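Comment thread on ticket #2218

A.B. wrote:
> Attaching the input chain for the structure job we discussed in standup.
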Amino acid sequence: MNFVRAIDEFLVYIRIHKNLSLKTVEQYERHLIKFLWYLVPEISEFKWKPINHELIFLESPEDSIKRSEKDILKRFLLDNCHLELENVKISDLNEFRLHIAEKWLSVKTANAYMITFRAFLKFCRKQWYESIDPVSIDLIKQKDREVTFLDTAEIVRIFNEIDTSTIQWKRDAAIIECIYSTGLRISELTALNKTAINLDTHEFSVRGKWSKIRTVYLTDLAVDKIQTYLEARKSELGEKDTFNSLFIRHNFSTDNVYSKSVQWNDVIKRPLTDVDVRLTRFFITNKIKEYALRANIIKEVSAHTLRHSFATTLLTNGADIRAIQELLGHASITTTQVYTHITNPKLKEIHGKFHR
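C.D. wrote:
> Ran it. Output below, let me know if you need it in another format.
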């Protein structure tokens, strides 16, 4: 079986049959292609060659789309890579593991590669393709997971650094309060639409990992800040606010159309869409880091830190661990139990009662 074709079949399988998220599929694809570059280095040179952009015309020039470089690369690999799956040995995988270790990747990242290879090889065995036995791939023992969270005083300090005199700052305050009051993942937050949130009932449903749907709840403070932002947005954009995204960037002009180069010297103009204005996970994470630095918080703060803070706040105040698991959308209680190792309101009480 051709190695590239096996990869292609595997990616289709996990996307269609296993219904894994697009982000997970992209990660698996990235890991497998990097392994391919390592095994067949001459193929990797293709990455640096200029690729002619082809247009597929639909109904009108405005609907023209660029055939992605990924599709062109895939066709190139299928036509030119003749590596057979049965010729890839466990020694190749171990050498690749050493190769990525020399790049100072973390143990977690190195294990993520091995998990990808395990899943890929399990698929190959199911198809009766001759391949490495997935059982032979061991993971590196990791240290206990470290969780960084903010206490209530630190959360207050961050909000004190947000001047809500502009619409951008109103938006940032709403974003931080939304994550802290719901425990949303950053990917879940960036995907939020205005129509998905019920500000009257203070709740909404979100589709998380493994396409699992859960209900999350907003505090009164979070609702107030989201409403304040949306009112400011309506005042600024008026009828031009046709975007469904809950949080958007505001450094654009609604009087101009968006121009995108789809060929070397060809420009097609079209109106702004949701994709153009929706905030990215990197933008939001950097904003949160910025406010934490202003508040003189020396911890490594990210959007996920607010999610951890949400969980530890609930646990400290006596919430049941199973309820926290549901609110966070964890598939396994084991994942949630990491918070009990950090803060448990009963431990100090037990220590004081029984230790004399």
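A.B. wrote:
> Thanks. Noting for the ticket: The chain has a mean pLDDT of 83.
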